[in-house]
Each structure stands twice: as structure tokens, then as C-alpha cells.
## 1
Amino acid sequence: MRILGIETSCDETAVCLIEAEGSFNASFKFRILGNALRSQAATHAPYGGVFPNLAKREHAKNLVPLLKQVLQSRKRPGQGFTKPLSRIGDLKTIGKILEREPELFETLEEFLQAHERPEIDAIAVTHGPGLEPALWVGVNFAKALALVWDAPIVAVNHLEGHITIAAMDTKRGLRNPFDAVLQDVGMSGRLQSFEFPALALLISGGHTELDLMPRWLEYKMLGETRDDAVGEAFDKVARMLGLPYPGGPEIARLAGIAREKGFTRPNDRSHSVGRAKPLSLPRPMMNDDSHDFSFSGLKTAVRNLIGGRTLTEVEKMEIAREFEDAAADVLVAKTARAVEEHGARSVLVGGGVSANAHIRLRLAEALAEAGVKLLVPVPELATDNALMIALAGYFHAQNRDFVNPDILRADGSLRLSYKI
Ligand code: KG4
Ligand code: ZN
């Protein structure tokens, strides 16, 4: 089955075409036929966070060029577009679907006049959660394509995309010389084997939640953040330290240097902020009975610690290290406790923060001790991408879990599950 995945929930515009077969077991395999992603990070960087309307505009501008890139890799002899574009008359309806995205309509119309229908069996699009104006662009784009290409739509929950990609064992195939511009073409993968019940730990810029997964596609929320998401805390603390957006990778970099240079050995106070005592930040709700999280107090503690002073480079590294340690401590403690309470055999970690090497290591150590399998995506697939949407979409398409385009809506606060 060929699935076209579309992702526009935040500040990454992404399109991916995969070919997949098999079910939720060793029979499953996929191959990327085309993949293109454009990050808007640089556009949003001056604002220190994502601006929804700016994101919407960028998605509208990027989608058609990315789709073109994805499909161009299919133009090899014998593998080109097969079915003729049959319903060009529907352009009027598309105009209606895209009436709030006139620029997208224009580029799409041009694209559709020039290209035949590609071989696809379904379109998988993120319909939430995320920034609603941004989500709508992807959803409307999917509706328009579905109409012209007469393809069914799978509405994908972004969080399920993150979980699905965590379960994949990905291999980099040989890059096809025809596809030199498309990074991941030829990449293939299978499902890792693991046992249920599993836990899903979702750690991203918009979410921090723990879900119990009794089986595939079933989630029961155990806990979530009561305030900031952990990625949001990384981004805000990075900003306080004068680091660029997105802050997660920057904090990780500085924290890594601090650890490597041993700035924070317990007896070495010479580099500590304020010099009087070693740097220490709180671990909010770490020993709390619930499975909920809280990261806004940690962020405020950093603000108080800085107290408006200009920090030295060493102080910044120390704060980054202590902040990352605090976040890791909380995530590890909460996950380990939920594992124990629910007898989980596996933990799937998804979302941008799962790219964090220190957090991965700490989780791996704790779960190995408990004999529980840890599944994390390769770092470059931890942040938002369309492969994860195509993959999650595939499993729903297999169940013929399609959505009526007329009632499909973007839902910024879409949930994976409700608290039990
Ligand atoms: O999943 P994602 O790409 O977008 C959302 O769905 O939110 O996650 C983005 C978040 C940002 O907050 C970013 O700072 C964080 O993931 N992030 C990291 C790292 N790489 C990305 N946080 C910590 N360490 C990293 N290496
Ligand atoms: Zn995400």
C-alpha cells in the first residue's frame, strides 16, 4: 500500500510517500519513496517561539514545492505517474476548500495541471494536536488532493505518529542517484518486536504525557503536564540563557560540554553560579503520587537563579547541565514508577525531546535495570516529520479507518486518550 503523509502541526512542513506492507508484527516493512521536509525554525527564531499565523503562511508556501520534490523521485522509467488526472473539473471545489489559503490554491492548481495522479492508496494527514491555523493548511491540502486524486483520507493524531516511529527499526538504504536531493529516499524499516502492555512517554514542544498501551492503537492516559511541556521548558530556559530557538538541542550541547569538562563535580565549587553553593534546581512533582508532570516551576527556578545577571559561558553550561539533569530525573522517575505500577514490558518514547541523548541514556539505564525494553526513534526522526504520519496512517488505512472529508476538521487540542 502506498501512503502519502502530510504534516503541518507546528513549524515543520513535511511530505512523505511510503510503500508499506504487513501488519503489527514481523511481517511489517516499509520503504520511503520520497521524503521532503522544510523547517521554519529560522523564521520563528527571532520570536523565540512559533508564531501560529506565520507558520500557517509558511506551510501554505511550502506544501506544493515539497510535494513536487517527493513525487519527482517517482519519475524513473517504469515507475512514473500512472493514472491520468481525471477530475480537473473539480478545481472549482478545490478553490472553495482552499479559500483561506489562496497562495496554496494557486500553486496547487498549477501543479495539478502539470502532473498526473501519482500511484497512492491513501493520504494521511495530521489533524491534531498542534497549532490550529497550521493544522488547517495540511488538512485542507489533503482534502483538495483527495478530491482530485480520488483517494481516501486517514486523519492522523500527531502523537500517535511519534509513538509509531519510535517502534520502527529503520535502516538507511543506498541513496538512489536519481534522488540525490531527497535525503531519505531508499530508507527502509521494520517494526521492532516488543511486548505489551507498553507505556508511551510523549515528550515534545507541546506535550508531556504518559499513556498505557494495552495493545496497538489503544491508549489510556496515566498522566500529563499540568503546565508547560518539557520541550517548551527547554525552549524557554534556552531563551533565558540567550540561546537560539529551538532551545532543546542547544541546552543539550552546553550540558554535554559541562559534563565532559566536569564543571559540576560536587567538590569543585569554583565554577558554580554565585560560587557560594553548588548549583541545584528543583525536580517538580518527582515523588508525587500521580503520574502528572509540572515543568513551569523548574523554568521559574532558572529565572530566579539567573536573577537578571549576565551569565558567563561556564555558568550557562552549568545551568544547562543542571536543568537537563532535573528534567531527566523527573521523566525517568515518573516513567519507572508507571512501569512498575502497570507491569509494562516496554516503553516507547516519542516527540522532539526524545532526541535528547542524555534523557535517552538515563531512560535506557533505568529500564535495563527493570528488564523493560526501551524503544526510541533515531534522533533525526524524533522531531516532527511526515514519515511518522504516513506510517501511523498506514495502519489505520489497513483497517479502512478513513474519514469523510466533508466532516474532517483540524483540532488543535485533539487527544490521544482520556485520563483513567
Ligand atoms: O515533536 P517536536 O518536533 O514538535 C512538537 O510536536 O512539539 O518537538 C519539538 C521540541 C522542541 O521543544 C525542541 O526544543 C525539543 O523538541 N528538542 C529537544 C531536542 N531536540 C528537539 N529537546 C531536548 N533535547 C534535544 N536534543
Ligand atoms: Zn511533534
Note: Residues 158, 162, 204, 351-352, 384 surround zinc ion (ligand 2) (CB under 6 Å).
## 2
Amino acid sequence: MARMSGRPQIALIGFMGSGKTTVGALLALELGYTFLDLDHALAERAGMSIPEIFAREGEAGFRRRERSLLLELGDQPGRVLATGGGIVLEPENVAFLRRHGLVVALTADLPEILARIGGGEGRPLLRGPDPMSAAAALWSAREPLYRGAADLIVDTKGLAPPEVARKIADWYRMARREDGSGA
Ligand code: S3P
């Protein structure tokens, strides 16, 4: 598969709390790839935290920034890219990530995700009187999008981040061998 050749970018997608940033950094180390967290880069570029961007510009403003930064920075071989949980809302974002590399979805079950997210600190979409119901509604809407976008779906339930990173690295190496793209 053409997307396997060279040192393809590996994008991590998944719900808030699925571990994209932590796992992504470990995976990059394991593969000798660079690492970029898109939300981190976005906040740095904006000179504002993600909650500040939501407060000032609304979700629409955040999504515009997310999309344009993805297009600007989102295509680099030999890199692991951790994305924000809403990246899959825009079909063009998904098409872009898939065109430029492999897409790995991290998942777990909702109770485990809720336990990891806690009160939704730093996550503007979960602000409000009932963060748990807000998360559950988003979860139902988003899960099919993550699944539909992914080359690989990793169930992280009960796994520590290094174990998740190892699983992805093993899959990646095997897929490349099978594809004849080298280890
Ligand atoms: C969002 C997830 C957040 C961040 C923003 C919106 C979402 O990233 O991009 O708050 O829509 O799910 P994490 O998935 O890293 O929490």
C-alpha cells in the first residue's frame, strides 16, 4: 500500500482521555520518529490555551484553527501526530490524515474514559453542569467516526500507555514487513 512506503506519518485519533498524547510520545520514541501534539502546537501558535480559544472564538473558531494548522503542519514523514478528539468531525481532516499516512484510533470503554477525564478539567466541551452526560453524548456521536477513519483500532482498556505504544509499534512493523516496505 502506497501509504506504507517510506516512513509514513502515524496519526493518533480518539476520544478525549484515550491517551493520544502520552502514547504518541512513547510511540515516537520507540520508532525513532518525531512527535507533534496538534493541540499543543495550536495553543502555542494562538498564544492562548484551548479553553481560552473556545471562550473567545467558540468551537467554530477552534475548529477553523485546528483545520488550518493540520493542513499546514500535518504532513511530515517519520512523525507521530497526536490529534484533538474532534479532528474527525471534518471529513476533509480525515481524508488528509489518511492521504498522508496511517491513522490509528485509540479506544476504551466509556466508563474508563470518564474515569480518566475526571471533571473535564481543561476540556471546554465538557464544561457545564453535567460533564459526564456531555461526554456520553459526544462519545456516541464520535465512536463511529473514529472507527471509520482508522487503519488500526487499539483497545486501550486496562493497558498502560507503554503497552499501547508497543502494540501499535508491533502492528506497524508487521504491516510494513507484509507490505514489503521494510521494518
Ligand atoms: C476536543 C478534544 C480536545 C481539544 C478540544 C476539543 C474534542 O483534545 O482538541 O478541547 O472535540 O474532543 P483531547 O482529545 O486531546 O482532549
Note: The first strand starts at residue 9 and ends at 14.
## 3
Amino acid sequence: EARVALENARTEIGKTINAAPAEIIFTSGGTESINTAINGLAEKAGKGKNQIVTTKAEHQAVLETCAYLEKHGFEIRYASVDEFGKTSPEALAEVMTEQTALVAIMHANNEVATVNDLASLSEVAHKHGALFFTDAVQSYGKFPIGVKELGIDAMAFCAHKIYGPKGIGALYVKGGLLMEPLVHGGSQERNRRGGTESTGLAVGFQAAARAMQKNAKDILIRTARLKSYFTRALIDAIPGVIFNMHPADSLPHIINISFADAEKLDPEGIILGLDLKGIAVSNGAACTSGSLKPSHVLMAMGRSEHVAATSVRFSLGMNTTEEELDYTVKSLKEILTRMRG
Ligand code: PLP
């Protein structure tokens, strides 16, 4: 029964991205899927293929895996991103060579919401004989992704971004591709990830994926409406507000803002001030050892250290209300007014 449940979950989750069940590997989450894909595919790359191409706006899971591989003989090349964090096919082509084994570029950016055009990027990768991997942790479930249609060779996604359980993710690897496992052990997951599978979490992931398939469109419409309500309210209430999301291609649930007078503002004061009012936001980068580091994504987009450090990232959920957004704008205005003296 457990085996049947696990395989049903694999089949249904695979279908959501137009993948066959054998192309889905269950992992512990987005980070493990990313590590497995980049390490596993790079290690099996042919002779002379010792380069990995990525961008400086990627999630830490991609950047740190690449940094690890750099210590083990790979050269990491970075394609540029524009002022919104987007990579164009031309920018990618500039850094590709015949030695590139793998391109790792995210679908949607978790800090600034910007969405990349995967079909055009994978085409460039393939033209140079490289594989194309994408981190779709943020975009999965927000809008349909067909791995075959978009030319994706490997893709990481997870359950907790679609209201599923934490601790489970999936990795799509195109049928027939050779991959070295990251977690060595038993022959589970067709020899691609050792260890006893978590049937319960896989079934939880399946339930979330099913609900998402049913409700995604409604959630998308509602969130997009809330996002435009919120951006309008911010423009009206906060002088000098600057939006960091791509104006056309961005996820509906993330709003990232900077301020024209960033030099006058105290980064910790904004985040902590909102926190004291019960509003949970981030400045993009993870807060380590109590000090706020400027976001590496905004820095990659060409923002100064101070602008990056004073930026604020808001994320909307399916239960967010207009009243909560009104309260957020009012609170932010109060904090900034106090800071601006
Ligand atoms: N990639 C992106 C774009 C993310 O937003 C996240 C998590 O927030 C991850 C990777 C890591 O995923 P996980 O937390 O499931 O390991």
C-alpha cells in the first residue's frame, strides 16, 4: 500500500509539469534537489566539459553548490542580469563556450519576483552542447510549467511553497540523462537518491499539488489584484518608493521595494520596526548572526550596498487581505516618517 501511494504521488506530481513518473526523484526539499542536480549532472559531464554557467542573482543553494564545485576543478562563469534580475539569451550566449557542461538559471527570483524566459535560455544552452537546469522552487504552482515544452533537462521544486509539508522536494531529470547521486546508499529512487522514502510527505506533496492544480488560477487572479492594490497604495503613501520587480515578467506574490533616499534610512530600523508591528518582511537576504547583510540579488542588479540593505521584500499569501495591506502601508509610512525626521 505504501509503495502504491508513493508511486501514485510521483505520477500525479510528474503530470503537473508534463514529466513521466520515472523522471521524478523525491528529495528533502528545494536545496537538496538543487545540490543533487548540479553536482550529479556536472560530475557525469563528458571529457573537457568543466564549466558551469549561472548568474549572481541565484538562490544560495545554487551559488554555494557552484562554489563547492569550483573547489573541485570546475570553472564557474556568470551571465549578467539586468536591473530587474533577468538574464537575456544574449547575455547567456556571451559566457557560453564548448566546455560548458551545465547552465543553472532560476525560473523566478525569490527576492525580486522576476521571471526568466526559460525556453530561450535552454535553447542557447543546447546550442552549445550544455544541459539546462532551472530552480523552479518559487514559480512551481504559480503558473503552468511544461518541462518538455521549455527544453528543461533538470528542474528543482518543492512542496512547502505550495502550502504542502516542509521537508519534501522533487527533482525532475529528463529521461536517459546520466546522474551521479548526491546521497549514496540503497537503490531507492532508481539509484539516484539513497534512503527510505517518506511516503507520508510524498502524499502530502501530492495533495498540495492537486489543490494547487485546482485553485492556482483563482489564487493567481486574487494575488495579482492584491499586488496592484498594494503597489498603488505604496506609491500614494511613500514618497520615493522604487519597485525592484520586473515591470512585465514577475511573480504575483512578491513585492520588493527600495527608497530614493536610502542613505538617510537605517536598514535594521525598517525591518525591526515592521516586526514590532507584527508584520513579517525580509530584506531579501537571510539574516545571519543577527546582522542584516545587503541582498546579493540587488547587488547583482547593480544597486549600491546601502540601497540593497534598506530594501524590503513583502510576500503575499492566499489568505492575505486588503486590510492587512492597508495596515502594512500605514505602519511603513510611520516608520519612514520617524526615520526621515
Ligand atoms: N530556491 C529558491 C528560489 C527558493 O526560494 C528556496 C527557498 O525559499 C530554495 C531554493 C530552497 O528550498 P528549500 O527551502 O525547500 O530547501
Note: Residues 29-31, 59, 61, 106, 110, 135, 137-138, 158, 169 surround pyridoxal-5'-phosphate (CB under 6 Å).
